[in-house]
């Protein structure tokens, strides 16, 4: 059943890519331009200069695309079909998220390839980046579940996707060094798994070091985010089913 649903979601997403290919190409072109400015203005001596942008691009899209998709399903009147599927709604969201995640990874790979060809930039990689990134993604997924539930209840939640996306760019130090941020903002940023993941990944690429203690701390932080996010999702989702889904736009 899960494999079948995953194939259906992947097919649906590929059809969407084919239908709105111009929008996706423009989006990738803008990403290349923004990434070029970011990469060329970063110290070339740091092997990890691109890590912050990759984390932000993948994880912020993971957060915002989910609520946007649910909002579109409500507008098209197909949300009920999702809710009556013979699998839990949260599992369906997980499958959708995995599909978005995979497609966005391919997009980032193409962007990095284009930047390498255009500017001759060499990107340093390490296989241990993968488990670090997956742990950070686990925590962000908890936040994704909360936004999905809020979008079910309040459709206009999806309207704040840009604010959330660029807020993450600012908070995590992906572009602005955290040392330059106010103390309160630094404290808030350090509570995010994304920030912790960026810090660990940069240390891994720049110094070749991976602290097991920091990795365990990231894992614990992400599990807390996931557990809290799932609990809030269930609470808001149940209230939405009792009081009805808001369809005002």
UniProtKB/TrEMBL annotation:
Alphabetized UniProt keyword annotations: Cell membrane, Membrane, Transmembrane, Transmembrane helix, Transport
Classification via Pfam families: ABC2_membrane
Record carries keyword Cell membrane: yes
Membrane-spanning parts: 21-41, 47-64, 99-121, 127-150, 157-176, 215-237
Record-linked InterPro entries: ABC2_TM, ABC2_TM_bact-type, ABC_2_transport, Nod_factor_ABC_transporter
Bilayer disposition of the protein: Multi-pass membrane protein
The keyword Membrane is annotated on this UniProt entry: yes
Gene Ontology cellular component list: ATP-binding cassette (ABC) transporter complex
Compartments reported by the entry: Cell membrane; Membrane
Record-annotated ABC transmembrane type-2 domain positions: 15-236
Record GO terms (molecular function): ABC-type transporter activity
Family to which this protein belongs: Belongs to the ABC-2 integral membrane protein family.
Name this polypeptide is given: Transport permease protein
Organism of derivation: Streptococcus acidominimus
